[in-house]
Design a protein that fits this description.
With 154 residues, the chain is an alpha/beta fold. It has a single domain, classed as Histone deacetylase domain (Arginase, Chain A), CATH 3.40.800. 38% of the residues lie in helices and 22% in strands. It has helices at residues 15-21, 61-79, 105-122, 137-151; strands spanning 4-9, 27-34, 50-55, 83-89, 127-133. A five-stranded parallel sheet has the order 3-2-1-4-5, with helices on one face. α2 (61-79) packs parallel to α3 (105-122) and α3 (105-122) packs parallel to α4 (137-151). It is globular. Keywords: Hydrolase. Residues 2-150 form the Histone deacetylase domain. It comes from Paracidovorax wautersii. One of its GO terms (molecular function) is histone deacetylase activity.
Length: 154
């Protein structure tokens, strides 16, 4: 692969992934996370291939959707990834008290559908998703089931 995108949705900034990939023009990383919040990083993108969206506590899903459409979509279209890797953190769910973001089951379904649309458009449908987190077990179970069903077109 010559171009790989990483989509990181999580209540925490993906600082480890960013540290590994910053400055590698074969990779585009897009992510949103609550800020300020652990690990207290990500407010300044360290390289042009990083598109961080730090959002305040209590940010709702519709606000995230709007930012994704306005900021991530043009970058993905310009980058044209051949594979999309997803760091799926469902701890941004409003039922999860690990953080204070306010996403719903439907918001995570929308994010998954957005990833799939980007993959169909640019990557011949190639997506690999990795579960990163979620601490409210009922919400986690619902969101993971929906995420997997959408990924598998079930």
């Amino acid at each position: 692969m010559r171009r790989v995108a990483v989509v990181d949705f999580d209540v925490h900034h993906g600082n480890g992934t960013e540290n590994i990939l910053a400055g590698d023009d074969r990779v585009l990383m897009v992510g949103f996370f609550q800020h300020p919040f652990y690990p207290f990083s990500g407010t300044e993108s360290p390289a042009a291939n990083m598109l961080n969206l730090p959002v305040p506590a209590y940010t709702r899903g519709m606000d995230i959707r709007e930012m994704v459409e306005l900021m991530w979509t043009p970058r993905m279209d310009a980058f044209r990834p051949e594979l999309i890797l997803v760091s799926a953190g469902f701890d941004a769910h409003r039922e999860d008290d690990m953080g204070q973001l306010a996403l719903s089951d439907q918001d995570f379904a929308w994010l998954t559908q957005w990833v799939l649309e980007m993959a169909r458009r640019h990557a011949r449908g190639r997506v690999v998703s990795m579960l990163e987190g979620g601490y409210a077990l009922d919400a986690l179970a619902r969101c993971v089931e929906t995420h997997v069903r959408l990924l598998c077109d079930l």
